[in-house]
Amino acid sequence: MATRHTDADADAGASDETEEFVPFFGRFFPESLALSVVLALIALVVTIPYFAPLDQLELFTTGFYDLFALQMALILFWVLSATVVESPPVGALFDHLAALVPTSQPAIVYATGAIALAFGWINWALGLVGGVLIGRRLCRRAREEGVAVHYPAVLTAGLLSLVLANQGLTSPGALLMADTALAEMTGVFADSTGAIGMTGFVLAPANLVPSLLLIVTLPLVLVGLAPDDEADRRELASGSLLEGSIRSTLDHYTLPTRSEYTAADRLEQSRLISGVAVVIGIGSAGIHFATGGALTLLWLLFCLMILGLLVHTRPMAFRSKTTHATRWANHVAIPFMLYAVVFALLSGAELYEPIGAALGTTELAPLVASFGLGLAIPDPAAVWVIIGPGLVGGGADLLNSLVAVMYGAGLSNLWLGFLFCGILSIRGFDWRLFAKYAAVLSGYVLAVVSAALLVL
C-alpha cells in the first residue's frame, strides 16, 4: 500500500527510491557549461573542411567577440527581470492571488499552473518565481488546514511558466528580431531585423491561439496526472514550505542604522533620487512609445531598470537585489561565449544556407530542432541565435519559424526544470515522476503547437 512521503524519507538512506530530484539529476546530467563545450567542439569538427587550421583556431578562440554586446544584453535580461519580480510589491501581489485559491489539490494545482503560464507569457521571472512561490504558499495553507497536496504536481505547475515564457510580451527571440541597434552592433539578423515587430509576433495566430489554449488546458492535464488518493500524495516537510508571506520572503533589504549614516549613505538610500530617476525614465519611455518607437531588447532593459528602481524605492536596495539576481545568469554567462563560437564557425563556413534548407522542409522542423538544441542550451535567445540565421538564410517563413523555435526552446526548458529548481534551492522531487509529468505535458504541447503551425 502506498504511503505519504516527506523530505525526511529522502534523507533516510540511499536505498529510498524517492531520492531527491535535484541532487540525483545533478549526478549525471551535464551542466550548461559542459554542454556548451560539447557543442563548440562539434562545431569545430564539422567545420574543419572549410577552414585553414590557423584560421579555424583563430575563429574558435575569438569568435565570441562580435556577439559580446548581445551576450551582455541577454544577461541583463535575466538579471533585471528577476530584480523587478523579487521585490516586496510583487510579493504582495503573489500573496493576494494565493489567498483567492480554494484549499484543495485540484484547485491548487490548476491555479498554480494557470497563474504561472499567464505570468510567464508576460515575463519569464514573473511566471517562474511567481508560480513556484505561489504553489509553495498554497501548499503551506493546505497543510495548516489538514489537506494533503501532492507537491511534485504543484512544483511542476510552477515550472509550466517556462512553456510560454518565450511567446509573449518579453519573448527574447522576438525582441532580438525587433532590435535594429543590436543588429548593427553584432551583424546577427542584420538583413531581417525589424521585419517582425513585437505586436506582429504576439498577435500571430500560430502564436496567440495555442498560447491561450495552453493557459486554460495545460494545468488541467497536470490535475489529471496528480494522484487522487491522499495516501499517494507526497508532501514536503513543514520546514521546507514557504514560511511567512511571499512579500516578507522577497523583502531582502535592511536599512543601515541612522546613526551610522554618512553623506554618501543619505544619497544611496534616498527615495527622492529613485523617484526622480523613475519620473525621467517613465517620461523617456513614454515619449519613445508614443512617437511610434518599437519595443526592443534594449528598450525593455531600460524599462526593467526603471521598474526595478520603482519597486525597490531606494538606489542601494535596487543595487543589492541586482547582485542577488545575478544567480539567474550564472548558467549562461560563460556558456554564451561558446554559443557565439558555434555561430561564428557555422557562419564563417557558410553552412547556414544548407542548414536552413534542411530545416525549412516542413513547418514542424524548426520546432523539433529547437527542442533538441534547447536541451543543451537553457537560454532560448541563444537557441534562436544559433538556429535563426539558417532559417532566415534558407528562405523559411520568418514569423512562423520564430514562433516554432520559441515554443521548442520553452518546452525544452521544462525538461531542464531541475536547473531552475537548483537556482531556487528547491528539493524533494522524484526525478522519475518529473520525467513522467514532463513527457505527458510535452506530448500535449507539441500536439497543440504543431496543429497551430500547420493550420494557422
What structural class do the secondary elements suggest?
mainly alpha
Q: What pattern of helices and strands is seen along the backbone?
A: HHHHHHHHHHHHHHHHHHHHHHHHHH
Total number of helices: 26
Please provide the count of β strands.
Answer: 0
Level of helix content?
Answer: 55-70%
Fraction in beta strands? under 5%
Terminal residue distance: 48 Å
Main pleated sheet: none
Mean pLDDT across the residues is 84
Low-confidence stretches: 1-19
The outline comes out as globular
- Which radius of gyration do the C-alpha atoms yield? 23 Å
Can you characterise this structure?
It is a single chain. The chain is an all-alpha fold and 456 residues long. It has helices spanning 7-11, 21-28, 32-46, 53-62, 68-85, 88-99, 105-122, 124-144, 151-159, 161-164, 172-178, 180-186, 198-203, 205-225, 246-250, 263-268, 271-290, 297-312, 315-325, 335-348, 352-359, 365-374, 380-393, 398-415, 417-423, 431-455. The longest helix has 25 residues, at 431-455. The chain is globular.
Keywords:
456 residues, disordered N terminus, mainly alpha, 69% helix, 26 helices
